[in-house]
Structures are given as structure tokens and as C-alpha cells.
């Protein structure tokens, strides 16, 4: 490169570097690692000894995440798609997992609720860095009967009931004061009426067609085990990492 071109390239590189906000995100990113032995224990994972269906393996891995001190292992990403097929994602809490599926709860009128009504199919994602593990599930989603949703809500904390009673999730909020007012009323009602119904609160169940278990490995020889539902049970296959 001629000297003038080199000078102008370095001037434009420093101009773009100085245009970056402080702290420098790119510098920070280069200091970070995954599968670092300082923060992560990477257990051996032998796919030949896994159970025939994913629920049993999920339950074992969940208990191991709790035992390893993984913060909030019961939070997960829920991916849906809008009527145009465009993806969307957010965090929700896992309410249970059994042969009927993995359950979570939300308002039927929320953005995700409307997306699920139009396209009742979703993906769930767990990442438990304490053990270098990731789990992905995909499948159709159904709403549980309303009585079950209300019973599930009333077995939870006053805060959970107050949040559900506040309602209007995903609507545009006029001001913080408006939320404070509505929330205060909802908390008072939740304390006064621990069985107050939250009519739009819905318990959803995702029944997976596919479940993938990923065990990270320091040498990047990650183990990926995929379960696919068949007419007679589950097919188990390894995937290249
Ligand atoms: C840790 C955590 C847990 C959450 N759990 C729930 C939940 O169980 N149900 C829910 O409706 N929203 C939950 N939220 C809020 C959602 O991420 C989201 O902001 C909200 O449901 C609105 O999403 P939507 O506009 O896509 O419908 C949680 C958020 C966080 C950060």
C-alpha cells in the first residue's frame, strides 16, 4: 500500500475508534472467555448412557445446575414468531416440565400471547454457564385449562399475583407514575384477595418435537445430542459442534 493510502486508512480507523462509545465494547469483548476453568466446571457427558427420552435428561441436568449454584436456572428464553414469520424472543420462568410438556405463564393479550395465538409453535432455550450446558426445545404450544392457570398463579408469591393483576402487558405505557399507581392497586388487591382471578393469565405448555442437549468442552469438542420425536418414541443423534 502506498504511504498516503496507509496514512488515510489509519486515520479512518482511528476516527471510527474514537467514534465508539466509552467503555470500548470491542476491547471489553476481547477480555472475556467462555468455558473458562475459573468459572465453569465442564462435566464429562457420555451420550451412550443417556435416557431414551429428553424429560429424564432435562430433569437430571436441571438438578445438577441447581447443585452447581447456577443462578436462576429456571429462567429461559422463549422464542416465538409473528404472523409474518419474523422471530421474537424474551425471558420467562419455567413453571414445570412433565410428559405434557414444558410450561410457562403469561398474559394472553401480551405480544407473545398474541403471537402464540396466531402461530402456536415456539422454542425454549436454557443456558447454564456454571456447567457449560445449553438446552434447546422446539414444538407446538397449547394453553392449559384456565382453572389450572389460576391454580398455578395462586400457588405462587404475592408479587407474582400482583404482577399478573397489573395486566396490560406489552401495551404502550404513558408514564412511570401510571405503572406505579396500577401496581400499587394490584399489590393491595393481591394481599387482600390471594385467590383473585387474573383472567388473561395463561399457562402454556410446549410439547417438544425436538430437544438438544449441548455439553461444552474446553478443547471445543462439544457434545451435542439431539432427540427427535418419532411415532414410537425418540430418535437420538449426535450433531457436529
Ligand atoms: C428473569 C425474568 C423472568 C421473567 N419471567 C416472565 C414470565 O414468567 N412471564 C412473563 O410474562 N414475563 C416474564 N418476564 C418478562 C418478559 O421477559 C417480557 O418482558 C414480557 O413477558 C413481555 O414480553 P412480550 O412483549 O414479548 O409479550 C421475565 C423477565 C425476566 C428478565
Automatic annotation (TrEMBL):
<dbReference type="InterPro" id="IPR011576">
    <property type="entry name" value="Pyridox_Oxase_N"/>
</dbReference>
<feature type="binding site">
    <location>
        <position position="112"/>
    </location>
    <ligand>
        <name>FMN</name>
    </ligand>
</feature>
<comment type="similarity">
    <text>Belongs to the pyridoxamine 5'-phosphate oxidase family.</text>
</comment>
<feature type="domain" description="Pyridoxine 5'-phosphate oxidase dimerisation C-terminal">
    <location>
        <begin position="201"/>
        <end position="241"/>
    </location>
</feature>
<dbReference type="InterPro" id="IPR019576">
    <property type="entry name" value="Pyridoxamine_oxidase_dimer_C"/>
</dbReference>
<dbReference type="Pfam" id="PF01243">
    <property type="entry name" value="PNPOx_N"/>
</dbReference>
<dbReference type="GO" id="GO:0008615">
    <property type="term" value="P:pyridoxine biosynthetic process"/>
</dbReference>
<feature type="compositionally biased region" description="Low complexity">
    <location>
        <begin position="1"/>
        <end position="19"/>
    </location>
</feature>
<dbReference type="GO" id="GO:0004733">
    <property type="term" value="F:pyridoxamine phosphate oxidase activity"/>
</dbReference>
<keyword id="KW-0288">FMN</keyword>
<keyword id="KW-0560">Oxidoreductase</keyword>
<dbReference type="Pfam" id="PF10590">
    <property type="entry name" value="PNP_phzG_C"/>
</dbReference>
<feature type="binding site">
    <location>
        <begin position="169"/>
        <end position="170"/>
    </location>
    <ligand>
        <name>FMN</name>
    </ligand>
</feature>
<feature type="domain" description="Pyridoxamine 5'-phosphate oxidase N-terminal">
    <location>
        <begin position="64"/>
        <end position="186"/>
    </location>
</feature>
<keyword id="KW-0285">Flavoprotein</keyword>
<feature type="region of interest" description="Disordered">
    <location>
        <begin position="1"/>
        <end position="23"/>
    </location>
</feature>
<dbReference type="InterPro" id="IPR000659">
    <property type="entry name" value="Pyridox_Oxase"/>
</dbReference>
<feature type="binding site">
    <location>
        <position position="111"/>
    </location>
    <ligand>
        <name>FMN</name>
    </ligand>
</feature>
<feature type="binding site">
    <location>
        <position position="224"/>
    </location>
    <ligand>
        <name>FMN</name>
    </ligand>
</feature>
<dbReference type="InterPro" id="IPR012349">
    <property type="entry name" value="Split_barrel_FMN-bd"/>
</dbReference>
<feature type="binding site">
    <location>
        <position position="134"/>
    </location>
    <ligand>
        <name>FMN</name>
    </ligand>
</feature>
<dbReference type="GO" id="GO:0010181">
    <property type="term" value="F:FMN binding"/>
</dbReference>
<protein>
    <submittedName>
        <fullName>Oxidase</fullName>
    </submittedName>
</protein>
Amino acid at each position: 500500500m502506498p504511504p498516503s493510502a496507509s496514512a488515510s486508512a489509519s486515520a479512518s480507523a482511528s476516527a471510527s475508534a474514537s467514534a465508539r462509545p466509552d467503555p470500548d465494547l470491542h476491547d471489553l469483548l476481547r477480555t472475556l472467555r467462555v468455558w473458562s476453568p475459573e468459572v465453569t466446571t465442564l462435566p464429562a457427558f457420555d451420550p451412550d448412557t443417556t435416557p431414551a427420552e429428553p424429560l429424564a435428561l432435562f430433569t437430571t441436568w436441571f438438578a445438577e445446575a441447581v447443585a452447581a449454584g447456577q443462578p436462576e436456572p429456571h429462567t429461559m428464553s422463549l422464542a416465538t414468531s409473528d404472523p409474518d414469520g419474523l422471530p421474537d424472543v424474551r425471558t420467562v420462568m419455567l413453571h414445570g416440565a412433565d410428559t405434557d410438556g414444558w410450561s410457562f405463564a403469561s398474559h394472553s393479550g401480551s405480544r407473545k400471547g398474541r403471537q402464540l395465538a396466531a402461530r402456536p409453535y415456539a422454542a425454549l432455550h436454557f443456558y447454564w454457564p456454571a456447567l457449560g450446558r445449553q438446552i434447546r426445545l422446539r414444538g407446538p404450544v397449547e394453553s392449559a385449562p384456565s382453572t389450572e392457570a389460576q391454580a398455578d398463579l395462586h400457588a405462587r408469591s404475592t408479587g407474582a399475583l400482583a404482577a399478573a393483576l397489573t395486566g396490560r402487558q406489552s401495551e404502550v405505557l404513558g408514564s412511570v407514575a401510571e405503572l406505579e399507581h396500577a401496581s400499587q392497586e394490584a399489590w393491595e388487591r393481591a394481599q387482600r384477595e390471594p385467590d383473585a382471578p387474573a383472567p388473561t393469565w395463561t399457562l402454556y405448555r410446549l410439547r417438544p418435537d425436538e430437544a438438544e442437549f449441548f455439553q461444552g468442552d474446553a478443547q471445543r469438542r462439544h457434545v451435542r445430542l439431539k432427540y427427535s420425536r418419532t411415532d414410537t418414541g425418540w430418535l437420538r443423534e449426535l450433531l457436529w459442534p
